[in-house]
Amino acid sequence: MILYIGNQNTNIRRHLTTNRSSTKNKVRYGHLHMAKTAGTALNQAMAKLYKNVCGNKGFTFKTDFQLIQRRELFKDVNYEDCDWISSEKPASFWDALVNPQQAVELHVPCRDPVHHLMAIVKYEDEVFDCDAANMKRQVDRFMTYVVNRFHPRLYRRNLDMKCFDYHEVPQYVDYMAQYLDAVPKHRIIDYVRPMSVPANPRRVDDECIWKDKELVKSVEEYMISKYHYYDFCSKCIGTDRDLLASIETDLG
Description:
It is a single chain. The chain is of the alpha/beta class. Helices cover 35% and strands 10% of the residues. It is built from 11 helices and 5 strands. The chain has helices at residues 12-16, 39-49, 65-70, 73-76, 113-123, 135-140, 144-149, 169-175, 213-226, 228-236, 243-251, and strands spanning 28-32, 53-55, 84-87, 104-110, 159-165. Helix 9 packs across helix 10 (228-236). The longest helix is centred in the last third of the chain and has 14 residues, at 213-226.
């Protein structure tokens, strides 16, 4: 089954080969919280260790994200006071943060497309139909988060997008130490709200898609060609825009 369609006409290649970060002004760092890429754990870890962290799932000295949601703290925050911002809002959220006076470096977590799809299917408590007559439509059913949070409008002046492998959250947290001010050790919050454990966790071995290698390949090709998020990640991971790959190269 061939699902591939031509890539959308975007400025992604130009964006990935042009450094837009300003050297004259302080850079504000952003984390695009894509669903099912360990964004909550990352936001919580950053809020625990660094000053001026603001996010849907954690602020410096405030790591109870349920309290954050109830009090709508993220809605009322003055982003000028934030050095690192994590948002799970629509892509248009970043518009208000980009201006000629301050560049934004937006960090995008990337995940294998098909595994990401299956994780979303499980999160939504749905079942993926490997025998669907229209496989494109079957995939499209689960792309709401992807379309909502990543959009070509992000390929813009003064918004410098970089990527990292979502498996490497601890490495990313350490990497940001060179750019952010650390919370004094005596003020580090020991308590972080534990992540809820799914009553029925994902079982990869039970997912039908992995039994058909051709289907996996076709679905992956379709996702990369249809959705800008996967297209961006496929062209970014392993390049000089990959935050953690550059570290591994330096160490090597």
